[in-house]
């Protein structure tokens, strides 16, 4: 893999993407609007390699650049990680589309905005898409590829190919939808979890135990649909025959947006680890995610 | 752990419970209404130990009995795994309550029925609860403990203690709710997944990849609530402040019971592994769950 990549916006997500591309062999050209962010990059990337057990020699492929135009020079893929504000995104994409050579794909890490919102009206809107990672992408491989109505199929094909080449797992969508797939699944599960805790039926720890020592063990191996495919002798159709009505009844009774009340925050904060521990526990989470990723590779 | 246990109903779940109790040191007394099931038990248990890497010597603690009364003799915990039919459950519990000594706890593996439905009116209703496992419990440790309004707090305390002693992870609920916790969480996530596949926005494989290579990696380590607690610098309250409105909007737009249509079954069956492979893939799943369980123990 030697596709040259530009990473535009070098916060946490931009740096993690840099590791993804560099370890796969791509030359990676970095730019950030804040010069102090750009200056601190080499040290931060070395620390990330250290923590994730990546060979720091991969960073020889990484260069930093004083302007967006210079970073884009020769790049065939742009991974943009700017702020999730529509006016800023629009300004960035107008600039990217003007400066990048016509065959270059422009991919946004956006989670809150869909690309039609910032690609509309641009000459190169056919080469713009969202490539939404899970943070941090160098330890969690899934990437949602979401087109706008203007994104060309060729752009989607090239995006899917590149993501596989850099050893991520692309999930290709066919149309824009608010929240893509991942956050839609997360939202419904959170709503029901919050309601169960708010009602006092179970503690926050009880909800988390149900996932980490139960449901999520199957989902991390099989996903939710392959899981039910194995939960009835005749596969998924048999499952839906047997359990569909029960699952439908439970869904009909499930919590919705009203579960995200300010009141539930206090109840959760009372038992979850304190904010002062967030940094330490996030570092442990990333170490554990790396170990989990390595473990999962041993299974197939 | 030497609490004597009776396992009533020796299908797949009853046998897996037998391994759980026996490997923790409990004498386990088995009974099943079908004599041919009981006869085949020793061979099946040896095969399960083999597959799960358990020492077959634990089976020295397991005995089979010709009558329910004999199996109950001396047991302090009964794990019942009968069919999920209300009239059968009622008949079993009337019998169990009549035969078991008064200090014995009667726990049902039921997933579809709550215990008030079959404990109502019985003299010993205070000692009856649901202890709902994930199949198979010897490789997936979570157990939902759900009381009826009549279940005594002492019964719940003893149930929680015993489950910890046999190295399962009890999730203690305070009240009956349809589907308990696990199937409620599963139902909402399935509904949204089915709708996304039905609409053609993403394939079944795409939904499963989003979970196994993304969301579920965090959930299997942290659960859903500890996950969001680390997704904002100020912890869960900060997270709900920042992302609560988005998550509420996504939940409000989520699919419900209507997603469980017969039509979606054909679409799923077209891409998921064929029913002929269910047995083979289930065996692989259980091997992988065992390996995952061992891996997760190395993390903390």
TrEMBL record, chains A, B:
Please give the InterPro entries that the UniProt record associates with this protein.
3-OHacyl-CoA_DH_NAD-bd, 3HC_DH_C, 6-PGluconate_DH-like_C_sf, 6PGD_dom2, NAD(P)-bd_dom_sf
Superkingdom as given in the UniProt entry: Bacteria
SUPFAM superfamilies, A to Z:
6-phosphogluconate dehydrogenase C-terminal domain-like, NAD(P)-binding Rossmann-fold domains
Q: Which GO terms describe its biological process?
A: fatty acid metabolic process
- Outline the extent of the 3-hydroxyacyl-CoA dehydrogenase C-terminal domain: 179-244
What molecular function terms (GO) are annotated for this protein? Answer: L-gulonate 3-dehydrogenase activity; NAD+ binding
| Sequence ranges assigned to domain 3-hydroxyacyl-CoA dehydrogenase NAD binding in this UniProt record | 5-173
Keyword list (alphabetical) reads: Oxidoreductase
Family to which this protein belongs: Belongs to the 3-hydroxyacyl-CoA dehydrogenase family.
What PANTHER family does the annotation carry? 3-HYDROXYACYL-COA DEHYDROGENASE FAMILY PROTEIN, LAMBDA-CRYSTALLIN HOMOLOG
What protein does this entry describe?
Answer: 3-hydroxyacyl-CoA dehydrogenase
